[in-house]
Amino acid sequence: MSGLIDPAVAERVLARALAHGGRFAEVFAERRRGLTMSIDESRIESVQSGAEEGAGVRVVEGNTTYFAHVDGLDPDDLERAAGEAASALRGERREPRALAAAEPGTPHPIARRPEEVESARKAGLLRELDERGRAEGAEIVQFTASYAEARREVAVANSDGLLSEDDRTRTRIGAQAVARRGDSVETGAETLGAHRGFELLEDDPAEIAAQAARKALTLLDARPAPSGSMPVVVGGGFGGVLFHEMTGHGLEADHVQKGASVYAGKLGEQVAQPLLNAFDDGRMRGEWGSDAIDDEGTPTQKTQVIEEGRLTSYLYDHLSAERDAVASTGNGRRESFRHLPLPRMTNTYIAPGEATPQELIAEVKRGFYAVSFAGGQVDPATGDFVFGVSEGYLIEDGKVGSPCRGATLIGNCLDALAAIDAVADDFFMKTGICGKGGQRVPVGTGQGHVRVGSMTVGGTEL
Amino acid sequence: MSGLSETAGRALQAALAAGAEAAEAYAARESGREVRVHGGEVESLTAATQAGVGVRAWIGHRVGYAYGTDLGADGVAAIAARAAEAARVADEDEFAAPPQPAAAEPLAGLSDRSVTTSPAERVVALALEVERSALGADPRVAAVEQAVYADAAEAVAIASSAGVAGEYESSSCFAYVQALAEGEDGRETGLGFGLARGPDGLDPSAIGAEGGQRAVAMIGAAKPASRSCPVVLDPTVAASFAGLIGGGLGAGAVQRGRSPFAGRLGERLASEAFALHDDGREPAGAASSPFDAEGVPRRRTALIEGGELRAYLYDTYTGNRDGAPSTGNAARGGYRSLPSVAASNLIVAPGRLSAAELFAQAGEGVFVTDVAGLHSGVNPVTGVFSVGASGLAIRGGELAEPVREFTIAGELVPMLGSVLAAGSEARWVPFGGSVCTPPLLIGEMSISGS
Question: What is the ipTM for the molecules in this complex?
Answer without folding.
Answer: 0.91
